[in-house]
Design goal:
Elements: E1 9-13, H1 20-32, E2 36-41, E3 47-51, E4 54-59, E5 63-64, E6 75-78, H2 83-88, H3 92-103, E7 108-111, H4 115-120, E8 128-129, H5 136-141, E9 145-146, E10 151-154, E11 157-160, H6 166-179
């Protein structure tokens, strides 16, 4: 398992307000599986997480959004937290990067509120997904079939609901990337 993703380059796109565990657990699990992981922030500066509503720890960004390209990576991870995807979905560059991953058929994994950005990138229509329950209506209105399950995989898209689902999320995410 530790070498399952050797040679794979994974992008994690986030900004301050990400749910701490939803960035750190995937980052660490992907590295443990052998992937090279790059954290992308809007400006390339460190970002600060949250643990539910409490201020969390700072995470170093490896790359600024302006310097990122889907062609440099094999897959994309979108952590949740309310503020993080809310900020990403109104940033044209962030939406364009997410859309580029989808249009290239590259694996995308989004957890909790992370699927909000997928809506703005036009990547959920016709997909079966899950998320934090409050996104149900948004995802349904965007043409997705929303179900309440710990993890859902639909083609090259994996979605999960919350931090408690991280084990299932990572199991499916690593399997999807390994198969790509």
């Amino acid at each position: 398992m530790n070498e399952r993703l050797n040679g794979k380059k994974i992008a994690i796109l986030a900004t301050s307000g990400f749910e701490q565990s939803e960035l750190e657990v995937p980052r660490d699990a992907l590295k443990k599986a052998g992937a090279e992981v790059t954290v992308i922030s809007l400006d390339g500066k460190p970002i600060t997480g949250v643990t539910h509503h409490e201020k969390g720890r700072e995470v170093k960004a490896d790359l600024a959004l302006a310097d990122a390209s889907a062609s440099r990576f094999d897959a994309l991870v979108l952590p949740g937290g309310v503020a993080n995807p809310d900020a990403l979905r109104i940033d044209a560059g962030a939406v364009a990067l997410v859309r580029a991953f989808g249009e290239a058929g590259k694996p995308i994994a989004a957890i909790c509120h992370g699927p909000w950005t997928l809506i703005d990138a036009g990547l959920v229509k016709g997909k079966t997904v899950t998320s934090w329950p409050s996104l149900h209506t948004d995802l349904t209105n965007a043409g997705a079939k929303w179900i309440d399950r710990e993890v859902v995989r639909d083609g090259r898209l994996v979605t999960s609901r919350k931090p408690d689902d991280l084990s299932a999320f990572m199991r499916e995410t690593i399997a999807m990337i390994a198969e790509a």
